[in-house]
């Protein structure tokens, strides 16, 4: 069933100017200018009250087109906050043994990641247009991505995250990653995800150490003393996140 | 950019398909999503699909489904006929009708008139 008219209006704050022409919305504010093209939607964009309100209409719309009204408004709201407050995405490095080494290059628009899980491969990620990246001075192993367009900033964060995926290993065990910690648009803040992951990595490490101790004890009960000493020395070099399998193979030699 | 001509009671529209092609009618009621009840001074009130109508800028002030006399009086007050004939759309339609109804002699006269206009613009 087609609804004759469905419309929604949003307010535009004082310091922002919005222009709409042929479904292309341009938002200009203190931090710069952003445009977004809504030509794929069958909606009517209209500025009312001399630019203080934006109205979005759907004439004879199906359920789908009417749903698109609110998303279009949300997109415009994101443009507005991008242009007034900006977007900041924070990412933390999580690692159990090999410190993730990151260097910012290209005047804050690219990042090189080395020593992820001890690998020789250097991972380079170019930031998208208008996104800058820096390493946080106060917090250890933190990256801060700043920009106006939320789509571009979040995509850059996702690109970094995806470069640091662990391959061919049990990912429940190898928890190394560069995780999105939280993002700020102005003052909003959410930071529980990577905190939990950090905690997990630490817990696993501790548990693993105890497991190692237990296995060493077992080994000493069954083997002559010399070989036990060998076991202990090799385990001292071993990192928890890489060697559980090797330990078993040692035991059952 | 937003729409200015709406389907409403009192909207004057032009029929662009069918038996009543070219007639100016007034939307008197809306039947459902696709059809309207439509009336004009010299026709019996009937229902017509919106796809057969082209909306104009003219709107008259009537209540839903008025009597024929009320409708006629409202059209007089709003001066629909004159507004239509003075609008560019209306004028174009009148010219089209005139051209379609020319006979051969008339067309000859038109040709001469055109030549005259061109010559006078060259010579000036």
UniProtKB/TrEMBL annotation, chain A:
Q: Does the keyword Metal-binding apply?
A: no
Q: Which Pfam families match?
A: Ribosomal_L6
List the GO molecular function terms. Answer: rRNA binding; structural constituent of ribosome
Segments passing through the bilayer: none
Q: Which UniProt keywords apply?
A: Ribonucleoprotein, Ribosomal protein
Q: Which GO terms describe its cellular component?
A: cytosolic large ribosomal subunit
InterPro entries, per database record: Ribosomal_uL6-like, Ribosomal_uL6_a/b-dom
Does the keyword Membrane feature in the UniProt annotation?
Answer: no
Annotated GO biological processes are: cytoplasmic translation
Q: Which residues form the Large ribosomal subunit protein uL6 alpha-beta domain?
A: 12-86, 98-176
Into which family does the record put it? Belongs to the universal ribosomal protein uL6 family.
Q: What name appears for this protein in its UniProt entry? A: Large ribosomal subunit protein uL6 alpha-beta domain-containing protein
Instruction: Identify the species of origin.
Output: Zizania palustris
Upper classification of the organism = Eukaryota, Viridiplantae, Streptophyta, Embryophyta, Tracheophyta
TrEMBL record, chain B:
Any one Gene Ontology BP term: ribosomal large subunit biogenesis
Q: Name one GO cellular component term.
A: cytosolic large ribosomal subunit
Q: Does the keyword Ribosomal protein apply?
A: yes
For the keyword Zinc-finger, the answer is no
The record's keywords, sorted A to Z, are: Ribonucleoprotein, Ribosomal protein
The UniProt entry, under Pfam families, shows:
Ribosomal_L14e
Q: Output one GO MF annotation.
A: structural constituent of ribosome
Q: Where is the Large ribosomal subunit protein eL14 domain?
A: 45-116
Recorded hits in InterPro entries, A to Z, give: Ribosomal_eL14 (IPR039660), Ribosomal_eL14_dom (IPR002784)
Q: Which PANTHER family match?
A: 60S RIBOSOMAL PROTEIN L14, LARGE RIBOSOMAL SUBUNIT PROTEIN EL14
Homology family? Belongs to the eukaryotic ribosomal protein eL14 family.
UniProt protein name: Large ribosomal subunit protein eL14 domain-containing protein
Organism in which the protein naturally occurs: Zizania palustris
């Amino acid at each position: 069933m087609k609804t004759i008219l469905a419309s929604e209006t949003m307010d535009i704050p004082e310091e922002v100017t919005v222009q709409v022409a042929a479904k292309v919305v341009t938002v200009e504010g203190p931090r710069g200018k952003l445009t977004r093209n809504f030509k794929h939607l069958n909606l009517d964009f209209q500025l009312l009250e001399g630019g203080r309100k934006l109205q979005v209409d759907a004439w004879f719309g199906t359920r789908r087109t009417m749903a698109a009204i609110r998303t279009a408004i949300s997109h415009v709201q994101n443009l507005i906050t991008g242009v007034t407050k900006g977007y900041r995405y924070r990412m933390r490095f999580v690692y159990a043994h090999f410190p993730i080494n990151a260097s910012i290059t290209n005047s804050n628009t690219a990042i090189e990641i080395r020593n992820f899980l001890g690998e020789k491969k250097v991972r380079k990620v170019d930031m998208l247009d208008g996104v800058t990246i820096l390493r946080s001075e106060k917090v250890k192993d933190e990256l801060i991505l700043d920009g106006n367009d939320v789509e571009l900033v979040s995509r850059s964060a996702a690109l970094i995250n995806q470069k640091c995926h662990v391959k061919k290993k049990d990912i429940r065990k190898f928890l190394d990653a560069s995780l999105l910690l939280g993002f700020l648009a102005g003052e909003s803040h959410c930071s529980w995800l990577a905190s939990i992951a950090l905690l997990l990595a630490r817990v696993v490490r501790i548990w693993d150490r105890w497991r190692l101790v237990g296995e060493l004890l077992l080994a000493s009960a069954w083997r002559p003393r010399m070989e036990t000493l060998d076991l202990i020395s090799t385990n001292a070099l071993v990192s928890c996140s890489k060697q559980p399998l090797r330990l078993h193979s040692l035991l059952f030699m | 950019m937003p729409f200015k001509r709406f389907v409403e009671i009192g909207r004057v529209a032009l029929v662009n398909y069918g038996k009543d092609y070219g007639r100016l009618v007034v939307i008197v009621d809306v039947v459902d999503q696709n059809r309207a009840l439509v009336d004009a001074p010299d026709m019996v009130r009937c229902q017509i699909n919106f796809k057969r109508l082209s909306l104009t800028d003219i709107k008259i002030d009537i209540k839903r489904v008025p009597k024929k006399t009320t409708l006629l009086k409202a059209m007089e007050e709003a001066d629909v006929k004159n507004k239509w004939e003075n609008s560019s759309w209306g004028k174009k339609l009148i010219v089209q009708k005139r051209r379609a109804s020319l006979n051969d002699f008339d067309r000859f006269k038109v040709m001469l008139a055109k030549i005259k206009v061109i010559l006078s613009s060259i010579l000036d």
